[in-house]
Amino acid sequence: MVKKFFNWEAYAHSPHHAPEERVGKRALGPFVLGLAIHNLADGFVLGVGAKASEITAGLVGLGIIAHQAPVGISLAAVLVAARATRAQVIRSTVLLGLAIPLAAALTAAAPVPGDQALGFLIGVAGGVLAYMGAAHLLPEAQAINPSRITSAVFAATLIGTTVGLMTFLGH
User: Fold this and answer.
1) What is the pTM of this model?
2) What is the pLDDT of residues 151-166, one digit of tens each?
3) Burial 104-114, CB ≥16 within 10 A → b, else e
């Protein structure tokens, strides 16, 4: 029913591939593994945010929730396009769903020797987010809408977020 109103298969393809190319079931393993690594990084960032403060953890958590909506749509699109079985869908979603809280809990439980180490971890977490945006989101956005405005909006968002965090959460 949903498939009639929303073309999931169109979203299962990178802009670098023709829409008529099929996503094979062999692509599911690497795709899910990539999303698992991605979600582990999200969990690490959330765990580091929890070590910094409750407010930081809450804001990072909200960002991760908002960020996971398009990730879920991508996962659904690939699973539909690959004609995944119900068992594959359940296994993939459970694995990916557990990756974030597992990585966050492990990161939050790990001892931090001091404020300098926490500052280093926060820098690494920020670097992970900036890398994910610059290496994955920006090229996709450029492929869909090739324009200097796309790059400028990305750079402005990154700078604005940095200034905002340093202004409101900095000491």
Assistant:
1) 0.65
2) 788 788 878 877 877 7
3) beebbeeeeee
